[in-house]
Specification:
It is built from nine helices and no strands. The protein is mostly helical and 185 residues long. The protein has two domains: 43 residues, no CATH class; 107 residues, AhpD-like (Up-down Bundle), CATH 1.20.1290.
């Protein structure tokens, strides 16, 4: 069986080394997911540009999308990373678990976002009218809808890359949930 290795700074090109240095300075380490992207000359920079693009969504809302997408896609790396990031953005442990289970009883707007995102991911973009209407009634716009899809796409990229390569999770492990949620239309 093939083993996939996360490259060190010395094993990547000069451009990626500069990105590693920025990540090290900003985060205190280079997450294995980002380091793995650096096996490709341009993928790390491209991925970070996607992640850091201007958005109508707040960081906390993007974490909601990251958490529910990673839960549905059963990506333990991203569940773990975004549990940490979700808490850094103001969610409690219980709220993170609730989001990963597909709802947010603590905030009706976040709940609409969780359900809308879960429907997008589970049904490959097909969302029933009730869920879509609830998203817009919660105050989101068509621009927000586009941003949700952009964040889902970002997260699917990282979910799939981790599942293909299976490198070590370098964040505190997220609690395993009994069942991966799915939403059917």
């Amino acid at each position: 069986m093939r083993s996939f290795k996360v490259p060190t700074r010395e094993e990547v090109n000069e451009n990626n080394q500069a990105i590693f240095d920025k990540l090290q300075k900003g985060l205190g380490f280079v997450p294995n997911l980002y380091a793995y992207f650096a096996k490709n000359e341009t993928a790390l920079g491209d991925y970070l540009a996607l992640q850091n693009r201007k958005s109508t969504l707040k960081a906390k809302e993007r974490e909601v999308i990251n958490l529910i997408t990673s839960q549905i896609n059963d990506c333990h790396y991203c569940q773990s990373a975004h549990t940490v990031l979700g808490k850094m953005n103001g969610f409690t442990d219980d709220q993170v678990i609730e989001i990963r289970k597909g709802h947010a009883s603590f905030d009706s707007k976040i709940d609409a976002l969780v359900k809308f995102t879960a429907a997008i991911v589970s049904n490959k973009g097909i969302v029933d009218r009730e869920t879509r209407d609830a998203f817009f009634q919660a105050g989101y716009t068509e621009a927000s809808m586009i941003d949700v899809v952009m964040v889902v796409g970002d997260k699917i990229i990282s979910n799939y890359l981790f599942k293909l390569a299976g490198f070590e999770i370098d964040f505190p492990l997220a609690e395993e949930l009994e069942k991966i949620i799915t939403f059917k239309n």
